[in-house]
Amino acid sequence: MIGKHKDLADYVLLKDTVSRFHIRLDENNGRYTVTDLNSTNGTRVRGRLLEANETTQLEPGDQIFMADCGYVFY
């Protein structure tokens, strides 16, 4: 889980725009997914805004934005 909650998030992003529990990354048989955890400022993957609690598969090179924090998945 990625978010700004210092005690419970696996990876902490100390940004005001990131929710305490923003996204969850999961792996199954070498395939990865990202789930928006009902974040306040949203999650975008490949430029598309995910719905609250929506899960989408990740591909190498995908851009993930948690509010205004951008990362590339490899």
Automatic annotation (TrEMBL):
Domain FHA: start-end pairs: 1-50
InterPro entries (alphabetical): Cell_Proc_Reg/RNA_Proc, FHA_dom, SMAD_FHA_dom_sf
Top-level taxon in the UniProt lineage: Bacteria
Signal peptide: none
PANTHER family: NUCLEAR INHIBITOR OF PROTEIN PHOSPHATASE-1
UniProt name for this protein: FHA domain-containing protein
Organism of provenance: Enterocloster clostridioformis
